[in-house]
Design goal:
Blueprint lengths: L5 H8 L4 H8 L3 H10 L2 E4 L7 H7 L6 E5 L3 H9 L6 E5 L8 H9 L4 E5 L21 E4 L7 E5 L9 H7 L5 E5 L6 H10 L5 E6 L2 E2 L5 E2 L4 H10 L5 E6 L14 H10 L4 E5 L6 H7 L7 E5 L6 H6 L8 E5 L6 H11 L2 E5 L6 H4 L5 E5 L3 H12 L4
Parallel strand pairs: 1-2, 2-3, 3-4, 4-5, 6-7, 7-8, 8-11, 11-12, 12-13, 13-14, 14-15, 15-16
Antiparallel strand pairs: 9-10
Helix pairs in contact: 4-5, 5-6, 7-8, 8-9, 9-10
Protein name: F-box domain-containing protein
InterPro entries: F-box_dom (IPR001810), Leu-rich_rpt_Cys-con_subtyp (IPR006553), LRR_dom_sf (IPR032675)
Organism: Panicum miliaceum (Proso millet)
Length: about 400
Amino acid sequence: MEDLPEALREIIKRLPSTSDLNSLSLVSKRLYTVEAELRDAIYVGCGVCPVTVDLASLCSRSWFSGMLQEADVPQVESITTNSFSWSALRLMSCENVRSLEWLEYLGKSGSLEELVVGNCERIRQFDLLRFGSGFMKVQKFEFQNSNFLKDLTLARISTESEIGLCCLLRKCKALGNLSLYYVLGVHDTDMITMAQSNRNLRSISLMLAPQYCEGYDYRTTLTDDSLKALALWCPMLQSVELTFFGCEPDWPDEIGFTQEGLVMLIRSCPIRDLKLGGANIFDDEGMKALSRARFIEALKLINCVAITDAGMHFLARSPSLINLTLELCDGLTDDGVVEVVRARKLSLTIAKCCQISLKAVQGAAKTVHYTDDCPGYKEWMDRCVCGPQV
């Protein structure tokens, strides 16, 4: 390369197409070597069976990106362990790729900026966890097996209207569990799209914080329209967690949902497990409606300051309730809790509720876990402030 004229080097660098590069490499062995050293990408297409050793040699250069179509396991493992500075990797229709050690290796190298996996049936969404810290530098990521995606968790990301989350959720057809933790830019249209496409959804967890919306409203972005979509299109929904962080009790409008919307969802879906955190909009009238829900077996209330003893009394008539957890609910006293646990013989957990005593509930409930500490609330706060460990 040192004795190659500079003008010729510039000509080779400016060749625009792969076919031109291939033609150049056929002219002579010397130009073949030059072209190989200057090429910054390689495409191995369908029906091509390169020798693994040669392919690994090609891929060992710096600033390299590659696309493999219908590659086999040994080839992928070999090229990735020889690719210390890859910037992009696309795997398309590589049905024989199933061993994922190569993905773990790429994640540790930390150089990859683009990762695309399309129609690789043996690579599942959980396998991508092996990429680990490598995702910190990735600027483009596509996983095109969305039709089979069953569990989706997104935490602390920003998404653009029409081209972000809505586009992803439109491709998902088999979601069973959805968790969205402080996703900036999530709107009702995203939830409606998801609900219409995933009628087998069984679990949803939303952690929301207020932000400035259209019209200078300061509230969580999702409204009752999202709850209506879930009620209408998700008849299998059994577990719901709604956490609101940074919403002041004196300003209930900071929560985009209303109590009526929550009650409508509870009545429409066979919800067995309900968790509400910081739900300042949910009061005694909401508890009255909740007591009529046929399916709810487990109820967890964290820092729900609008609920009083009167609301707890309604739970004594709840037909299916067997587990009750109360954390940091300072508006509740012995009078409100004892009646419901005695009537239902509940498994009861009390954490940091200053007006509820162990003496009052012990013997009334089936089992009691009582603590002045609040590990569940601490965990909740950690998730609110730092985000979940995903």
